[in-house]
Design a protein that fits this description.
The protein is an alpha+beta fold. The chain is built from 15 helices and 41 strands. The longest helix has 27 residues. It binds ligand MIG.
Length: about 700
């Protein structure tokens, strides 16, 4: 049951697809204060658990800290940070009361979840314009289900988007891309795509290609495609100010850029230097910006990543003036503590200065609205522009698309990656904990920069990170300029990586099937244990293990030099220890805690009782993967088991669970057999353990 409560005059964000009339009932559970902005206060009981907030720092249970929804380009997300690149204003409280709350408000919002006072939640904003959706159901799973139905189906990528992807900021020219492709090919390591970071563009101008460094762009795209490798270019939010550059000139002519207070196009500096932001909140501008992607699609490109769309700003002209004015004021001073602090703030505060968001305006139905009021919608609408543009090119085809910044609603148009993490063990753990929170908010196509973006990675971190990454839909190894090279062929033990990635491909029948079901049925792909075992307090407070789809649990190793880890089983389960793709050990373990020995090469998966996993023969590429010939592994007490298996061509948008096949595994005259009414399916190996 969902109720909508409207305060002030909210901006229509299109986050929600089912229209619900606002109720005039009083808003329950919370105390509302409307002086000095707006705030909602809720008293938690002793063991309330708070879920949600999507892309954010800290745990799955958000209690004890303060989070700020304000899309931020912060490349140093240490534990003390409160905002990342997204604003996902959905929380669920589980305790004496159990409900979900979505705050549809694109301004900065603060969620104090027991930070100031451990037993109190205070949600606050500067203004009063918002829609609140209160979702009351009998379980957390049902709350998520209702919420996700309301916000619409999650984006489903083309199947190749689930393959292994390689990226690095620093591939400069055609030779670099060929080199990556050739290295992977010669070592026989799977590779599905290579990402083009900002250096492919002509001086960082969107929708251009540097012809000196890419003299045969179309041939490059074609040749790599022939090897099963797709190129995925980046698109930045800022459009370079430069006479003669068509995107700039058209945008100026039609008045499509965000304006400053005097009505002139607002100048912000980003990669290309002085730039303007397309006013993507305006539908006409969205259609225009989205149509620009076609020039690359015409050259054979089938996927994109949208970056810098918080939007990130290195400095504004006014901000820079203020900075220089301050520097002038201390020029002849003997710099002591105060001036030193001022000096640091003046320079360091130039980039992503919140004051700049007050300095430009969107055209909303002919009226200027200051960016601050709508801040969290920019990346969402840039990505929506791209998705709508792809539909105009070919509405039957799935394109790969993900964004850095996002707001709930964007999950229908594309995925997100989780931004500039670091090659730190703590960020591997953060990656694990963030996945279910993202799924709650509709973001299924998501993943982190595997191996870490900033800082130099290490072999063991890469191994452990990939042992988790093989389960995340967006599986991309990406690194920053000037860091240690981390393509998998840079390490000694390439055969291990080959087998590990090949395992990912054998796992795709299950992952793809569960992904599509999660999108179509509005369910979680990764969920916290507490969603399925709400009565088990240990399960509820376990944050380093996740359920994956309906049958699996994973428990990644995320610490340096570990030779094993403790795992909590909320019920008896079949534990399979893999070394890359090889099954080392299979045993049924009892409910409770277990210490598992796991060498660097090994990782475990766990199957729930009376369920099975479908795998296929590995391959180096989704195109050559046969997802119709299946291996079945499971555990049963003798009962017959069924699984709804979904598969398709991976390219068209015609996706319906009506086309799923039911697989039945039953014991007949002492032997386990797998059957399906779908003649296309065959089963080459069946292993069922008694449990
Ligand atoms: O300010 O395009 O998060 O993935 O490699 C850095 C260069 C801009 C930030 C993205 C990162 C990308 C980088 N970009």
């Amino acid at each position: 049951m969902i109720k909508k409560f409207t305060f002030g005059t909210p901006f229509q964000t299109d986050a929600v697809v089912t229209q619900i009339p606002s109720t005039s009932e009083a808003f329950p559970y919370f105390q509302i204060h409307q002086e000095n902005g707006f705030s909602l206060t809720y008293s938690m009981s002793g063991d309330d658990v708070v879920y949600g907030l999507g892309e954010n720092m800290r745990g799955i249970n958000k209690r004890g800290y303060r989070y700020i929804s304000c899309c931020s380009d912060d490349a140093h997300h240490t534990e003390d940070k409160s905002s990342l690149y997204a604003a996902h204003n959905f929380i669920m409280i589980s305790g004496d009361n159990c409900f979900g709350l979505f705050i549809d408000c694109p301004e900065k919002l603060t969620f104090d979840i027991g930070y100031t006072d451990y037993d109190t939640i205070v949600i606050s904003t500067d203004s009063v314009d918002m829609d609140l959706y209160l979702i009351e159901e009998s379980s957390l799973k049902e709350i998520v289900h209702s919420f996700r139905e309301m916000i619409g189906e999650s984006y489903i990528p083309p199947k190749w988007g689930l393959g292994y992807q390689q990226s690095r900021w620093g591939y400069l020219c055609e030779e670099d891309f060929n080199e990556v492709a050739n290295q992977y090919e010669s070592l026989d390591i799977p590779l599905e795509s290579i990402y083009m970071d900002i250096d492919y563009m002509e001086r960082y101008k969107d929708f251009t290609i540097d012809e000196k460094r890419f003299p045969h762009f179309e041939t490059l795209v074609k040749d790599l495609k022939a090897k099963g490798i797709k190129l995925v270019p980046i698109i930045d939010a800022g459009v370079k100010v430069e006479d003669g550059y068509d995107v700039y000139e058209e945008g100026i002519q039609k008045g499509y850029f965000c304006k400053d207070k005097d009505g002139k196009p607002f100048v912000a500096a980003v990669w290309p230097g002085h730039s303007h932001f397309p006013d993507v909140l305006n539908p006409e501008v969205r259609a225009w910006f989205g149509s620009k992607y076609q020039c690359l699609i015409d050259k054979g490109i089938e996927g994109f990543w949208n970056d810098m769309n918080e939007p990130a700003i290195f400095y504004s002209e006014e901000g820079l003036k203020e900075c220089f004015a301050y520097l002038d004021s201390i020029r002849d001073k003997n710099i002591g503590i105060e001036e030193n602090e001022g000096l640091m703030n003046a320079v360091m505060g130039l980039a992503n200065n919140p004051k700049d968001y007050d300095r430009f305006y969107h055209d909303i139905d002919g009226k200027p609205v200051v960016h601050t009021k709508l801040h969290n919608l920019f990346g969402y609408n840039m990505t929506r522009a791209a998705a709508d543009g792809f539909d105009k090119v070919d509405e039957t085809k799935r394109f790969l698309l993900f964004s850095r910044s996002s707001y709930i609603g964007m999950h229908r148009y594309g995925g997100i990656w989780t931004g500039d993490n670091c090659a730190w063990w703590s960020h591997l753990l953060l990656n694990i904990k963030m996945m279910p929170s993202l799924n709650m908010c509709g973001f299924l196509y998501t993943g982190a920069d595997l191996g870490g973006f900033g800082a130099d990675t290490s072999y063991d971190l890469m191994v452990r990170w990939l042992q988790f990454g093989i389960f995340t839909p967006l599986m991309r190894n990406h690194a920053a300029k000037d860091t240690r090279e981390q393509e998998l062929y840079q390490f000694k033990n390439t055969s291990y990586f080959r087998e590990l990635l090949r395992f990912r491909y054998s796992f795709l029948p299950y992952l793809y099937s569960e992904y599509v079901k999660a999108s179509k049925n509005s369910t979680m792909l990764f969920s916290p244990l507490g969603f399925d075992y709400p009565e088990d307090p240990v399960a509820v407070h376990t944050e380093d293990q996740l359920l994956l789809g309906e049958n699996l649990m994973i428990a990644p190793v995320y610490t340096q030099n570990a030779i094993g880890r403790t795992v909590y089983l909320p019920e008896d389960m079949l534990c399979i220890t893999f070394s890359a793709g090889e099954k080392r050990k299979m045993e049924v373990l009892k409910k409770g805690h277990h210490y598992l020995e796991l060498s660097l090469e090994e990782f475990p998966i766990f199957l729930r009782k009376n369920s099975f996993l479908v795998l296929c023969q590995p391959s180096n590429n989704t195109e050559s993967l046969n997802m119709n010939a299946l291996e079945v592994i499971g555990c049963s007490d003798g009962s017959t088991m069924t699984y709804e298996y979904y598969n398709d061509d991976g390219y068209t948008k015609d996706i319906s669970l009506d086309n799923a096949s039911l697989i039945t595994v039953s014991k007949e005259t002492g032997e386990w057999v797998a059957t399906s009414a779908d003649d296309a399916l065959s089963f080459y190996e069946i292993t069922i353990m008694e449990c």
